[in-house]
Amino acid sequence: MIRVYNTLTGKKEEFLSLVSGKVRMYNCGPTVYDYFHVGNARNFIVFDVIRRYLKHKGYKVTFVQNITDIDDKIINRANKEKVSAESIANKYTDAFFGDLEILGIVKPDICPKATEHVSDIISLIKRLMDAGFAYQVDGDVFFEVGKFSDYGKLSKRLFDEVKQCARVKIDERKKSPRDFALWKSAKPDEPSWDSPWGMGRPGWHIECSAMSMKYLGETFDIHSGGQDLIFPHHENEIAQSEAATDKPFVKYWFHNGFLNIDGEKMSKSLGNFFLVRDILKKFSPQVVRYFMISAHYRSSLDFSDKSLAESGKAFERIENCFDNISENVKDLDASQKNIHTEWTNKFEEAMDDDFNTASALGVVFDLITEINSLIQAQRHRGTEAQIKEYISDLKTFCSILGILPSIEDKELDKDLLDLIEERTKARTKKNWQEADRIRSLLEERGVVLKDNPDGTTNWKRKG
Ligand code: AMP
Ligand code: ZN
């Protein structure tokens, strides 16, 4: 039984999908006006792991993640660079998918773009107008929050707090400061679409209601995002969707904690961010992923070079175990999968507890210790079958967590291979100084050597 923390109920509860064996899941995706930073990456990585785990538990998961490709930030950037909003959105959408791939994040099943769903959005706004939940002022359409009695049930915010938190200047045309835009009338030089209220573009919140319900139905299992989206974005999504359908919108709401830097949320607006593509110049994708899952997904996590370096060290233990396996365990049957051992129980116990990846990593390390000691004792007969089952488990766990060491491509440039050969000769002659010199040379070029007691040398690329 999986137990999950549901922001809506404020409790941990048993996970029961609406349709047996199926999970329909929606995660709020990026606004494509820039490359994404490691704070955003935390969201994409943790929900990638949760999605993989639900699949492992036998669910058929449909995972939808939108692309916000029309928004003030995109328009501002386009104006600054004197290009179209579309070209900015296309550029950063491509970059987004490229970064996802490098991070080993499985592409969502459906990635709807707001600009390709304007007619769905308009239909939903019409429904809200017909049901009396929305009103029009000068080509803008607003949602009337006062008409939706359940408003605040997700964020648990009361009206006064909502008022105090309104950061933007209050639009006097609104019936109440709480009301929010569903449709924005066209401004000069902005992309716009025709609608019953004149030319304009959709507000941000309505896009997610329209696209999630289009692909997942009017009630679906999981909606996720970062904690900053609980209010107002997700609160507004609930209001719009439930007002239109009169059905519960989402059963379980999951929110990841922030990636902080010096105790503050990493964000574009504060300028305290690092782009994923820059971090990947220093650390491998697996190390970045390891770091992200080293804490529970709901807690906050502090980003620093030091903590990433620590993750690098920990990941090295996993890599070393895989090296140990490939050097010492022969005839690993590739078809040996889905084996259930006591380790599977331990791993699942950790993950069933609200996807506790930190505990699951603890199980991975205990298993590594066990495998390493079994390999050492391999001369004793009778452990071979068991060790293979454990290795299969280890691979499964690492692949769910997305930290399976990449299969080394054993192709090195000829000059590097020649250097390794030269060093082997130097070692045979006990010329340690020369051997060390070549070792450093190779390290500078990203190749790390490991000398074995039998005189041979293995190499791997630096993580
Ligand atoms: P955005 O493109 O800003 O809408 O962000 C995409 C996703 O990343 C959303 O789910 C955000 O909540 C999430 N996010 C943004 N900043 C952080 C952060 N510092 N830590 C964790 N998640 C974040
Ligand atoms: Zn959203």
Number of helices: 15
Number of separate structural domains: 3
* Oligomer status: single chain
Major sheet details = 4 strands, parallel
CATH superfamily of the largest domain: HUPs
Strand content: 5-15%
State the CATH architecture of the largest domain.
3-Layer(aba) Sandwich
Low-confidence stretches: none
CATH topology of the largest domain: Rossmann fold
Describe this structure in words.
- With 463 residues, the chain is an alpha/beta fold.
- It has 3 domains: 3-256, HUPs (Rossmann fold, 3-Layer(aba) Sandwich); 276-401, Four Helix Bundle (Hemerythrin (Met), subunit A), CATH 1.20.120; 414-461, no CATH class.
- 46% of the residues lie in helices and 15% in strands.
- Strands 4-3-9-10 form a 4-stranded parallel beta sheet, sandwiched between helices. Strands 5-6-7-8 form a 4-stranded antiparallel beta sheet. A 3-stranded mixed beta sheet has the order 12-11-13, with helices on one face.
- α2 crosses α3 (85-102) and α9 (285-293) packs across α10.
- The mean pLDDT is 92.
- Bound molecules: adenosine monophosphate and zinc ion (ZN).
- The site of zinc ion (ZN) has 3 residues, from loops.
